[in-house]
User: Fold this.
Amino acid sequence: MGNFDGILSGLQLALSIEGILFVLLGVMAGTFIGMMPGLGPISAIAIMIPLTYSMDPTIALVLMAGVYYGAVFGGSTSSILLNAPGIAGTVATSFDGYPMAQKGQAGKALAIAAIASFTGGTVSVVLLMLFAPLLSSVAIVFGPPEYFALMILGLTAISSLSDGSTVKALIAAVVGIMAVTIGIDSQTGTARFTFNNPNLLEGIDFLVVALGLFALAEICNLIINRKDKIKGNENIGSLKLSKSDYKEMAGPMTRQSFLGFILGVLPGAGATIASFIGYITEKKIAKNPEEWGKGAVKGIAAPETANNAATSGAFVPLLSLGIPGSGTTAVLLGALLVLDVQPGPLLITDRPELFWGVIISMYVGNIFLLVLNLPLIPYIAKVLAIPRPLLISLVIMFSMIGVYSISFNTFDLYMLLAFGVLGYFMRLFSFPAAPLILAFILGGMMENSFRQSMTIANNDLSIFFTRPIAVSLLGVALLAFVVPLWQAVRSRRKSKMSS
Amino acid sequence: MLKAPHRKVSLVLMAIAAFYLYLAFQLPSFMNSIIDSDTLPKVLGVLLIVLSLILFFMPDNETPEQKEKRNIPKSDAFMLIGTFLLILVYIFFLEILGFILVSMLFIFICSLFLGYKKHVTNAIVAVLFPVSLYLIFTQLLGISLPSGILPI
Amino acid sequence: MKYIKLAAFGLISAVTLSACGSGSEESSGEGGGDWEPEQSIEMVAPSGAGGGWDTTARMAAEGFETEGILDEGMGVVNKEGGGGSVGWSYIQGKSGNPHHLFVASPPLLLIPLNGQSDVGYEDFTPLANMISDYGAFAVRDDAEWEDLNELFEDMKDDPEGITVIGESSPGSMDHMQFVKIAAAAGVDPKSVKYVSAQDGSTMTNLLNGNADVYSTGVTETIEQVRAGEIRVLGITAEERMSGDVIEDFPTAVEQGIDATFVNWRGFFGPPDMTEAQVAFYEEKFQELNDSEFWADTREKYGWEEAYMNSEEYSDFLEEESASMQELLDDVGLYNQE
Assistant:
């Protein structure tokens, strides 16, 4: 009964003129900031904080939440159009989004991303409403051993991210983990591979690697092919999706709404890992995995659904436990403290109107995002009509400023350039970049959670095999590793027999 | 025998792995943990050597299409290196001359260098983009970019 | 700390009055300094957006503006990296240019002592300390320990059985504040089993039993204490703090453990500042400290007032640094380079 009253008062707040106005403002600002190079949800929220000082806490949270999922929503644009992922959560979107846009279907790619984002966002809000209190206990059972198992599961995807040689994919992954070992080791405080350079102590920023390997390496390609299209690509294709497109998207969107949401709930996992795992799981079960990476509809729908679903998921531990599960929600938590709101187990009883008001505003916000963004797609996609030489200069400048606005340090720009060169050479010698970035994202967490587990268990490895969740995740990882191997052996035998 | 490109790559990778391993063995150890900060790096170094060896002895299975990618005409290579140098200059002068000025010059010169002949459009874009981006970042988003020598 | 507060309270009206009274053309006249900034001041937060340093820097900049204390503007810039050392080397490079300040706290002492930074507090000009914060040690509500002494007794018997978790890396704040109190209670500093979790999972790991003790700031514990999930066994303050919930947290001192740990926060300038420049900033920070805006800010974030002028600050830092060095040496993390 209490819950029902709470939902009602939340409804009232979310649907008040003020509530609607600020969720609109939030999602618009969020989309815009998300499209900016290098600016992701964290900076988007940080930018909004001063605005909220004198606001009603619920409205302030409605605004900041809107900025948050708006930024995730908008982040896919540069991945698709320019192969320049502005935030970590949209790297996987570029795998198929960019190729599709290059085929002259930029409009379609953006439309798929928008619809998938909307679905992921909306379904996950339903889940958030139904299961927030229940799921908070799930968020808590995940400790270092479970995270280690999850990271291992994620890493088994490396082979499925390669388009050819598995050895090359593995090499790329090892180099990715090597890159993440640079910097201060969090468990001992030892500086590793820093060459006494203070700029390397914090490690290499994700964006440096992503923009280097993807955007700058792609620039090199564009430079070589600049003569083909010195006038640019006028054709953005139709926005309209066919019935079969929708049919194709339905499966991944349903599955990834749930999976992404659950991964978002886990503290520390978040949108990035959700989008990768979303991409990989869908590729594994797809009938036509060979078309992935060349502009597959599902390849855009899966990660975009997952990262938006994860964003709502991240609100579960924040609102129901007061535990920030990611950097973004930590900033959000800080902003709430200033407003005298203490998220935690008591929030839902102390401030039901705030708890439910924010959740309900998320429905409204997601609808706004879809309605506002779809008509804008043709204009945004016009970016591709810019003549190649000009586009190249602009993308370079955008990438530079994206990285610079994170660290305000030109050293990172030189690193960006170095990763661009590395990315280009990897292309020349047919080494896939996706495993490198995946390993870079998962590797650090894998090492950390392994060593944390070892310290907790006093160096007893059995900690991984006595916990049900950890052991089942490791089991799935083993299957994910063995099954394709077995299939490969079997198909080779078959082809031998037939020849 | 060394002519196959994947063998050359494999040798380069082994050199990197050896250097990385050398550094890993220099890492100080911290007394009360068995899995120390140098454990993973050592594993990675060895792993990379093993993988490079496999790569070395593998048959060359690149498609002709993949090989063709490495055939870069001299003029294109010149363009790549030129753009690379322009970026270096851009980074070097970013904090000295300021974002607006250096970006204007970069966009105009880089586009020109890559063969863009509409000088007026080029100049307009080169002025408009950096200025509006600067205003958005500093005024709207509260993120300060280097103002440099311009009296802003 | 209490008496400083009282004294400051008395001063507020006087100073704000004089601040309003002095016109802009001679605002530096009476303070004894004959230096004034010639350009806008850059305030560096050596961390990313949203953390403690960033918040302090931004609130200070806002305070200077809303209270009209500085004629020239103040802009906050984030220089993230190396636990602060990137920002520190940046300011060190501004030697002699007093328009670049930064905000600091105990890591400025700890990180150089760990050998992770070549520059330390003695390379800078301390201007003023503003606030202090304290550490808290929390356990699950159903934990077997009723107070710090019981915990430390168990730790002496079986150090391997008790996992302490904190946000910062070993040798930095969360670790050292625990070690300092534990060592004073007779626990071998080297035997403390400390796990660092920098991904925001510290509280989760306390609640789900992967860790037994959570070493953190006082404010971080309040909500879970209110919800009855955790208990705070002790805080590192000299005497009890005021405020709802917080006032019930026992100090280590009252449990017979003679040790405290202050998470101070203040402002520094580059090396080689003149006396007049230091005096100028000292006065401005004092003014900020006494302002209503800053009082509200302190209350909002649960900070305690702890103003120190440049000289007091230097003495304090010297003492703190020596005691930290000793402690790090005991843990085996002191790194002379």
Summary: The radius of gyration of chain C is 21 Å. Residues 310-331 of chain C form the longest helix (22 residues). Chain C touches chain A through 53 residues (CB under 8 Å).
